[in-house]
Amino acid sequence: MKYMDEYVISQMYGTQSEKSSLSIDQQTGERLSAAEMEDFIQEQTIIVNEQPIHFTKVELLDQGIECFLPDHFVIMPPEEARLKYPSEQRPTVIYCNLDGTVDFTLDPSEMEAEDGELEQIAKQLSVMIRDVQPIRSWKGMETLVTEHMTMTIMRFVTSAIDGHIYNEMMLFNHKGKMHIGTFHCEAEKLEQWKPVTEIIIRSLRPLTEKEHIYESGLS
Question: Which domain does 134 fall in, by range?
Answer without folding.
Answer: 2-216
